[in-house]
Amino acid sequence: MIVSLKTFGVFWSFGFFLVAYSKEADEPFLKGNKTAIPEPQRPADKVSAKYEYVYTYEDSEETKDDKRTDKRTGKRTGKRTDKRTDRRAGKREPPPANEYSYPYRPKFPAHPSLGYCKLQDFKFGESDRLGKGGFGQVYKAVHKSGKTVAIKHTLAQSIKDKPNHVENEETIHRILQNAFIGQLLCTMKNSKNDIFFALEYFPGGDMYKQLLTYHPYSQAVLAKYVAQIVLALRYMHSNCVVYRDLKAENIMIDENDNIKLGDLGLAKYDCDNELYNLAGTVEYLAPEVAGKRKYGRACDYYSLAVLVYFLQSGKLPYRHKKDQKDVFIKQLATGKQKIPSTGNAAADELIGVLADYDPVQRWSNVYVNFDKFKKLSYFNGLDWNILEEISANQL
């Protein structure tokens, strides 16, 4: 027992000596001389150069080349990076083998009429294709339950630089539950990271195809269609959504001959009218959008003015050659491209109200002074109460 106490005393003395020595060695570092003790390697420094590239998102800001730095190493890389990803770089796993992968999970994988949506439960093929859009293709499909739906297929490759695009469309679809807006049923994803939306199917097709077959429409039918579009837009705008792609090809006709706005791929949630980027179909652009000036929900009413002309006359108010697209957009931005007369006084009056060059006045004409708008001669004989009742019955 005496030997053990002596042994303990020796070890205790030796430990005290080591602590004292360590404290003395640390003094230069504690006094600010950081070169005395090397800084430990951070986890981020161990990330392989193979995974140095990070995807940039739609809302990331690009900085000047000479100011771009990698926060992990402090070196100037000249590469465009996403700040949110950089901060967590040391904690992220390397991307999967599929180069078009991105972290997306369907938010709405089920629907009461379909149950849990599985891609193998829908039958469709190339012969069932209904159309093609900017971000995907649309097919007619039959679910195992017998329900016919439209499947929008978006390739992962086509959205690899804007992974939030699909999530934005998915979320906005679920915000907008209205009788005059096409409904999203459920969303799916396959092993290749392609995205599939199951949407309402409309056997009547879109307004563009209908117009080719049935033009000219009667004035009563035109008034009903335009009024329903106005109510759909007002509902969107009351929920701070800017459509940005109103055109005949994106308006569906259901079995009751009512309209349904579809394809919300370019729709944007914005309550403050602070959008700047050029988006939409060129012939339908409002001047402020074409000029990349600050814009908001009023741009949709200008697009409606173009659509009214198209429905009335069977053609767009103006055309441009492909190699003169930039010149045409500049003319739109400055107001030099004006919508010509349709030859119908009531239609021209409506177009004048919708296509006011000043977006503030345009917004006031339609959204603020709606009671006055409903009394325009274009809508004579139309029962707005019936349409508003249908619109109010949200799904």
UniProtKB/TrEMBL annotation:
Q: Does the keyword 4Fe-4S apply?
A: no
Spell out the InterPro entries in the cross-references.
Answer: Kinase-like_dom_sf, Prot_kinase_dom, Protein_kinase_ATP_BS, Ser/Thr_kinase_AS
**Signal peptide position in this chain?**
1-25
Domain called Protein kinase: residue spans: 124-379
Q: Which residues participate in ATP binding?
A: 152
Gene Ontology molecular functions: ATP binding; protein serine/threonine kinase activity
Keywords, A to Z, come to: ATP-binding, Kinase, Nucleotide-binding, Phosphoprotein, Serine/threonine-protein kinase, Signal, Transferase
Region Disordered: start and end of each range?
Answer: 59-104
- Stretches of Basic and acidic residues bias are at 79-94
Database matches in PANTHER family: RIBOSOMAL PROTEIN S6 KINASE
In the record, the note on similarity to other proteins reads: Belongs to the protein kinase superfamily.
Protein name, please?
Answer: Putative cAMP-dependent protein kinase 9
Q: What is the protein's species of origin?
A: Paramicrosporidium saccamoebae
